[in-house]
Each structure stands twice: as structure tokens, then as C-alpha cells.
């Protein structure tokens, strides 16, 4: 039968943290992963609110935000959901009625440090590629500009002139695109004022 013992056994083996709370957000159940993510150890949590537990347990610049600005806490309606991103942890709160019609809250804790680290490596790689493309492009453009400004003593055929002009425009455009990409990356990383 699909009872509370079955649910608890399933939750105990999930890689994400799971906290079940009642309509007032008082904790009814915490799985081992949630205890690890919130650094609870074996401390008793009787009567604690899941929102307060998150706010006090996770060392992050967002401390306090969970209980104060939680959209789920404000709505407190069945089928509502909210996601909060804290440093290294994504918290998803779901609200739904149980079999008796009482509102229960399910709070999931996903450790997203690996995902954030992967994104940082990915962005570093993109920036490295952009810089590495820009490095050889600069002398290519300089050489093309020198060809474009050849003195009349070394005239070019009209077809050759058109090829050099097109190449200069294309090289400048590529440098502009690379510079724009690097500026957007700096802006996205918070290293540049908007």
C-alpha cells in the first residue's frame, strides 16, 4: 500500500533534499539529504518552520529572504509553487492538498554547485576562445589596412582592391562582434556597469 512509510522510505534515498511541512510551514519530515544541505546534523527540528530553517541554516547573502519574500508563503494556495536560488542551492517549494484535503508543502533542495561550476568553466572557455580569435585577427586587419593604403606607385587592379576592401570590412566586423561578446560577458559577470 502507498502509505506514509513508503513515502518516507523513498524520500530517504533521494539525492535531492526533501522537507514536508504542514499548512503553517511547520516541519513534519526531513530526509537525510536535506539535513546535509541545511547543515542540520542530528539536531531536533520539532516545531521549526521550514522557511526559518532555510533562512538560518544556509550561509548565503540571501539569508532571511526565504521567509520574508517567499511567494508561496504569501499565496498559500494549493498547487502554488515557488523557486528560490540561493548560492549553491536551488529551493523549490510546492503546495498541494493531502488525501484529507489539508494543505501540505513539499520543499526540494537541489545542490546546484556543480551546475554553477560547469557554467563558470563554460563561460571561461568561451571567453578564452573569443580572446584567442581576436589575437590573430588584429595583425590580419593591420596587414589588410596596409594593403588598402598602398601608394600609387604600387597600384592594385580594381578586382584586387575590391577583395582587400571586403576583407577589411569583414575583419573589422569580426573584431566588433568579438568585442561586443566580451563586453556582454563582462556585464553578465557583474564586472562592468550597465
Tag the structure with descriptive keywords:
5-stranded antiparallel sheet, 52% helix, 5 strands, 7 helices, alpha+beta, 194 residues, rod-shaped
Structural commentary:
There is one protein chain. The protein is an alpha+beta fold. Helices cover 52% and strands 17% of the residues. It is built from 7 helices and 5 strands; from the N terminus they run H-E-E-H-H-H-H-E-E-E-H-H. A 5-stranded antiparallel sheet has the order 2-1-5-4-3. Helix 6 runs antiparallel to helix 7 (158-188). It is rod-shaped, with a radius of gyration of 29 Å.
Q: Order of strands across the biggest sheet?
A: 2-1-5-4-3
SS summary, helix count:
7
Return residue spans where pLDDT drops below 50 for at least 5 consecutive residues: none
How large, in whole angstroms, is the Cα Rg? 29 Å
Helix content: 40-55%
Write the H/E string, N to C. Answer: HEEHHHHEEEHH
Overall mean pLDDT score? 77
Beta-strand content: 15-25%
List the helices and strands and how they pair.
Layout lengths: L3 H9 L4 E5 L5 E4 L1 H6 L12 H8 L7 H5 L1 H5 L5 E6 L2 E9 L5 E9 L1 H36 L9 H31 L6
Helix pairs in contact: 6-7
Summarize the structure.
The protein is of the alpha+beta class. The protein is built from 7 helices and 5 strands. Strand 3 (81-86) and strand 4 form a beta hairpin.
Amino acid at each position: 500500500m502507498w502509505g506514509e512509510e513508503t513515502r518516507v522510505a523513498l524520500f530517504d534515498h533521494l539525492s535531492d533534499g526533501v522537507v514536508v511541512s504542514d499548512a503553517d510551514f511547520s516541519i513534519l519530515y526531513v530526509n537525510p539529504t536535506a539535513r546535509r544541505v541545511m547543515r542540520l546534523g542530528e539536531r531536533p527540528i520539532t516545531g521549526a518552520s521550514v522557511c526559518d530553517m532555510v533562512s538560518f541554516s544556509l550561509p548565503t547573502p540571501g539569508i532571511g529572504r526565504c521567509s520574508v519574500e517567499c511567494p508561496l508563503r504569501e499565496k498559500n494556495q494549493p498547487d502554488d509553487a515557488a523557486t528560490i536560488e540561493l548560492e549553491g542551492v536551488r529551493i523549490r517549494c510546492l503546495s498541494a492538498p493531502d488525501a484529507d484535503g489539508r494543505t501540505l508543502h513539499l520543499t526540494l533542495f537541489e545542490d546546484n554547485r556543480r551546475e554553477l561550476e560547469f557554467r563558470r568553466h563554460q563561460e571561461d572557455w568561451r571567453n578564452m576562445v573569443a580572446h584567442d580569435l581576436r589575437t590573430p585577427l588584429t595583425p590580419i586587419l593591420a596587414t589588410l589596412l596596409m594593403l588598402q593604403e598602398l601608394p600609387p606607385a604600387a597600384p592594385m587592379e580594381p578586382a584586387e582592391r575590391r577583395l582587400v576592401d571586403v576583407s577589411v570590412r569583414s575583419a573589422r566586423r569580426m573584431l566588433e562582434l568579438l568585442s561586443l561578446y566580451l563586453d556582454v560577458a563582462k556585464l553578465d559577470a557583474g564586472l562592468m556597469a550597465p
